[in-house]
User: Fold this.
Amino acid sequence: MSNSKGMLYEGDVFLRLFESGVPSDKMIGPIDGTKLQLKANNEILSRTTKRRGQWGKTVGQVSRGKPSTFALGFNSMTPELMAVLFLGEEAAQNITGGTITAESVTLQHDEWVKVSERNITSVVITGSVEGTDFEVNKNVGAIKALSTGNLTDDTATTFDATFSGITGITIKGGTQARVDIEVIMDGMNLEDESDVYIRIPKVTLQIDSDTDLFGDDYIVAEFSGEIERLDTETAEFYVDDSVVYA
Assistant:
């Protein structure tokens, strides 16, 4: 019989997204986890009696299994994790620069008005001067007519401009109704520095926390879900303790 010991884990957590019913070969991670919770669940049905002198006593019980549950939290982000957090998908963004010619816009005094492109530069309004008669928000792609300038309020005006290219990653949120993942943890028990390996073959994620993009602290994403018992597996999840790698 092995000696008892305390359990205090640290580890690298990896996720594998399911694609067409099977986990992808690509692993997301390791992620900076804030929690990794597992709970095996059951339900006990009790039969009670109202016999004399035994009212309310249990005289029979049946126990039956319920789905194990899982919870995950993390406080670092990659584009893949952001897509999971927003039940969406990531896509490469590659906008080519170009020119805007004689675009019509109705300018409002001291109010920003959106134009057709972002990352705009070299805005030209005939007879007006940038900084004196109007201002430009380059990143958003907006123009504001200044009430102290020579542009008439609430009047259609044409302008020319150039816009530069934009590259990056776009997260298209809310495009997925369901996100299934496999969870793997390569960890260590800090008490005796023994290796620990955890694998959860399949869980459907549910978003547990609002994502406050203007919060006062780092964003912590939290998920939970019921673990699915796959026909190809012998258990809902596996915890390999005191692992020895030969």
Summary: The chain has two domains: 9-46+61-91+172-243, 97-164. Residues 8 and 190 are 6 Å apart (CA to CA). DSSP finds one helix and 18 strands in the chain. The first strand starts at residue 9 and ends at 19.
